[in-house]
């Protein structure tokens, strides 16, 4: 039996942090994962931070790997959602 989950984002150029967050929640719901650890790497930290902020009840822990401790420049963070 094949299970299929459809998400709205298809191309990185068309994606936003909000759409990616929505897709993450759709996937967790589809897999019947109520609460999980969320681990991200580098640029995925934008999504992880947004997900943890929007739905803290869905994530037991947040691990940010290879992230910067200083704020991004405007050029570097263009296109990223400011939290």
Any descriptors?
2 strands, alpha+beta
Structural class: alpha+beta
Low-confidence stretches: 9-14
Specify the biggest β-sheet: 2 strands, parallel
Share of residues in helices: 25-40%
Number of strands: 2
What is the CA-based Rg, rounded? Answer: 14 Å
What is the helix/strand order? HEHE
Distance between the termini: 40 Å
Strand order of the largest sheet: 1-2
How would you sum up the global shape? globular
**Proportion of beta-strand residues:** 15-25%
Mean pLDDT: 76
- Give the helix tally: 2
What can you tell me about this protein's structure?
By secondary structure, this protein is an alpha+beta fold. It has a domain of 34 residues. The chain contains two helices and two strands; from the N terminus they run αβαβ. A two-stranded parallel sheet has the order 1-2. Helix 1 packs across helix 2. The chain is globular and about 40 Å long. The termini are far apart.
Topology summary:
Blueprint: H1 17-30, E1 36-41, H2 45-54, E2 59-65
Parallel strand pairs: 1-2
Helix pairs in contact: 1-2
Entry summary:
Helix 1 packs across helix 2.
């Amino acid at each position: 039996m094949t299970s299929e989950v459809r998400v709205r984002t298809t191309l990185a150029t068309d994606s936003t942090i909000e759409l990616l967050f929505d897709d993450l929640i759709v996937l967790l719901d589809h897999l019947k994962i109520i609460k999980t650890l969320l681990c991200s790497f580098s640029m995925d930290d934008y999504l992880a931070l947004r997900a943890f902020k929007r739905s803290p009840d869905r994530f037991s822990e947040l691990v940010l790997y290879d992230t910067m401790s200083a704020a991004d420049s405007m050029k570097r963070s263009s296109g990223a959602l400011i939290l």
